[in-house]
Amino acid sequence: MPDFRRPRAGRWTPWRTAPPARLMRHATGTVLVRATRLRLRPEHLSVLDGRTLNVAAVLSEAPPAGPAAVEFASGDRRTRAAARMSLTADGRARIEATVRLRAGETENPSEPAERLPEVVLAAGRWSIRLLLSGDGRTRRLALAAPTDSARSGPYDGARFAVVRTLSGAAAISAAPPRPAANVGSIVLRPHRAQVRGELLNAGAPDTIVAEMALRGGRTVHPIRPLLAPGPHGSGFTVELPLAAMAASSPCIGADLHWELRFRTGTGKILPVRRADVAPHVLRTALPAQTVRPENGPPVLLRPYYADAATLIVVLTALPPGA
Predict the structure, then answer these.
(1) Rounded CA separation 263/294 (Å)
(2) How far apart, in whole angstroms, are the C-alpha atoms of residue 111 and residue 108?
(3) Adjacent-strand bridge partners of 199
(4) What SS3 class is residue 213?
(5) Full DSSP string of 206-250
(6) Would you say 220 and 252 are in contact if contact means Cβ atoms under 8 Å apart?
(7) CATH architecture, domain 44-175
(8) Rounded to 5 degrees, what are φ and ψ at 15?
(9) CATH number 2.40.10 is the correct assignment for the domain at 180-317
(10) Is the N end or the C end of the chain the one with fewer CB atoms within 10 Å?
(11) What is the pLDDT of residue 308?
(12) Mind listing the pLDDT tens digit for each residue in 182-240?
């Protein structure tokens, strides 16, 4: 409890006259400054391609006698990955690690770090430390945090980012993947058109219905996708109802813009994305082709991606025999 009595002459000190809130800020600031000085500043610390953590740091001491590892900790949960150790020109130890990150439920590993192919992180914030073994003991060194931004994984949509804690230490922020539909390819044949891809983290994929929705109108054609196991989720094939889409055209030669959507059993619309299109690309056009469905007039199809993800199919009804 601070002493707020008037101090004797010649012995004035701000600790005795400052209010409690100021004392708390002053004490907290001192702790933060001291804690920041204890962090090991890495040469490199970032998340590449949305799911690969790269770490490089040089110790200010002789190399440890045992192996090194990178540890991730959140509460009482811990996991780790192997690190490589080499010597610099002045004899110091350089620690490097390339860690593959995956979203999921984290379990404390029972295998050595060098046998773990990847690190599984549950949603939340995970502190990053270097584990140095030698002389019968294990030391943990926290890393100072650089600035970085969140990036989505190219396949499952999980987001990992290097963040800075209040004490200046580095941590990994892990966000779980969101349900989405990844479009892999658009197949245009002489008599049909198909869209193929994967449903990711969609829960019950057999309850999902695809839709071709007319932009600027209320016409929607539901489609039951054909499902099959995929490398990262449930693969789908959507057969476009070209005859029904062409029937909505007011006249020959009119352009209709149709958007591909996926709707869950609860009515939620899944985002449609393309993993190999950069986020800053506003429009990616694909080659146009004339398709002659067996039960309808010929149509000219011009698919393109809007906003780097949304699949739009421009359909133009052609006169018979075109």
Answers:
(1) 28
(2) 9
(3) 181, 234
(4) strand
(5) GG-EEEEEETTS--EEEE-PEEEE-SSSEEEEEE--HHHHHHT-S
(6) no
(7) Sandwich (2.60)
(8) -65, -25
(9) no
(10) N
(11) 52
(12) 888 888 999 999 999 888 877 788 888 999 999 887 899 999 999 988 887 889 999 99
